[in-house]
């Protein structure tokens, strides 16, 4: 199964495992059985990493949602703090009316 050109015998002497060679299905002529096996391996690798990826996606989504809600809440808080300017304007108008010799409204 593993020949010496793929690092089978030479790789075992150095204590390293043989490494799989990359195959480009578009360039190399592969049989339908080999293509089917490649799809099965890719699918099993994808399914193996799916729970970890799903957990990260959920964490990222919750983080982005929390950030959006924090910005939204801070915006409402800031707008509600701007009411004191209206009170100051009312007090300033009342002071102008009470002050003698002012003609401005």
What can you see in these coordinates?
It is a single chain. This protein is an all-alpha fold and 105 residues long. It has three helices and no strands. The chain has helices at 8-14, 32-81, 83-98. The radius of gyration is 36 Å and the shape is rod-shaped. 0% of the residues are buried. Residues 1-11 have low confidence and may be disordered.
Query: Rg, please?
Result: 36 Å
**Count of helical stretches:** 3
> SSE order, as H and E?
HHH
The low-confidence parts are 1-11
Distance between the termini: 98 Å
Largest sheet geometry? none
Structural class: mainly alpha
pLDDT averaged residue by residue: 80
Helix content percent band: 55-70%
What spatial form do the alpha-carbon principal axes imply? rod-shaped
Number of strands: 0
Proportion of residues in extended strands: under 5%
